[in-house]
Amino acid sequence: MELIDGNKIAAEIIAELKTQVAALPGRPPCLALVRVGEDPASVSYVKKKELASATIGITSRLIFPPVTITQDGLFALIDGLNADPAVDGILVQSPLPKHINETAVFRRIAAHKDVDGFHTLNLGKLAQEDETGFVACTPAGIMQLLQRSGVAVSGKHVVVLGRSLIVGKPAALLALQRRPWANATVTVCHSQTASLPALTRQADILIAAIGKAEFVTADMVKPGAVVIDVGVNRVADSTKKSGYRLTGDVHFPTVAPLCSKITPVPGGVGPMTVAMLMQNTVKARRQNA
Ligand code: NAP
């Protein structure tokens, strides 16, 4: 069994982007990071994105409206960023407060600045295999992890657990692309799927993105499979100072010995999500120039 080191691969990509940004003509790329309120997880995610931007030479514009901002107020803020020629990419950190419609917010961001890849137009471009679109960062990161760790995807059976718009669906669409780095046969499973273990056991590459701690157990995995664990779950653990530990959607201790390759949690998919956001921002700067 070999661990796929997301921290190492993300660091390689960040270093490559730094070189690319230094060679760009004109001003550096600019990423607007919008965080509504003070949710601790969002504070930490936005901080990571700010730090990665600084490392690469991307200017970040930090906008932190209060949790009481109205939907119209947030729309007005986004409209201002859409119209600002000095801003290349806009990221609105989720989750948003309950009184704000998240999908409407993602649609409000101009598609050519939608570096998160959640806009209807960008999801459509992904389905059409149009490379001018922005691909959602976590699925894009998964494909990079596979490519850069030497996993051939073409012709393989990829089983995706989860059908969210942020991870599952775009991951399935990416693996299905008519490209040498994709060309997979894809099965997508969800909460209503019958005989789930029988399907996951057919996977050459299993992508678990359901948000259920240690859901995937050894009996659900084919020996020799590659397992990508997207889940980030907090499990109570009194031995930890924080009172919890982070775990994925895969029961790592029993599944890992079976696999040819597997991503750890943390240190697998997570760092790749930030690296792909940076890649999308550099792409936006190039395309918007
Ligand atoms: P989500 O929107 O809650 O979607 C979960 C999906 O899993 C749904 O399609 C759901 O099916 C399916 N599901 C739930 N229970 C299931 C079960 N028992 N059997 C089969 N399918 C089941 O979650 P998400 O946003 O895709 O995120 C998934 C996980 O990835 C979470 O742990 C999240 O924290 C993590 N994540 C990590 C990163 C990263 O950068 N590492 C980024 C994004 C998300 P239905 O559609 O039928 O409800």
Describe this structure in words.
It is a single chain. The protein has 289 residues and is α/β, with parallel strands linked by helices. It has two domains: 25-113, Rossmann fold (3-Layer(aba) Sandwich); 137-270, 3-Layer(aba) Sandwich (Rossmann fold), CATH 3.40.50.720. The chain has helices spanning 6-22, 40-56, 71-83, 102-108, 120-127, 137-148, 168-175, 196-200, 252-255, 269-288, and strands spanning 2-3, 30-34, 59-63, 89-92, 157-161, 185-189, 205-208, 226-229, 233-236, 244-247, 261-262. The strands form three sheets. The protein has a six-stranded parallel beta sheet with strand order 1-11-8-7-5-6. A three-stranded parallel beta sheet has the order 3-2-4, with helices on both faces. It has a two-stranded antiparallel sheet with strand order 9-10. Helix 1 (6-22) runs parallel beside helix 10, helix 2 (40-56) packs across helix 10 and helix 6 packs across helix 10. The protein is globular. The mean pLDDT is 97. NADP nicotinamide-adenine-dinucleotide phosphate binds at residues 138, 161-164, 166-168, 189-193, 196, 209-212, 230-233, 269-270, 273.
